[in-house]
Amino acid sequence: EGDLAGAAARWARLQPIVGVLDDPATGVAACKAAATALGLPGGVPRSPLPGASEALQRGIEEALAGMRAGG
User: In Å, how far from its chain's centre is CA 55?
Assistant: First the structure.
């Protein structure tokens, strides 16, 4: 029952962004930056957590672009 191949394909498409968002050291900043990149109100983490670095923001943008492109 269900579409195992379709589910596997969708999960594979999500892996790049999941890897970025699931980092314990940067997860909060990454989630907020990803929300902002998607046009949602993400903001920045409250102190003492740091915001997303430029490198992290680029990684998020690249992962989201890959998802949008279907890759």
Answer: 13
Q: Which residues of 4-32 are buried (b: 16+ CB within 10 A; e: fewer)?
A: eeeeeeeeebeebbeebbeeeebebbbbb
Contact 20, 59 (CB under 8 A): yes
pLDDT in tens, 24-59: 889 999 999 999 999 999 999 999 999 999 999 999
Pair of tokens at residue 27: 């997860």
Q: Would you tell me how many other CB atoms lie within 10 Å of the CB of residue 34? A: 22
Q: What are phi and psi of 32, to 5 degrees?
A: -70, -40
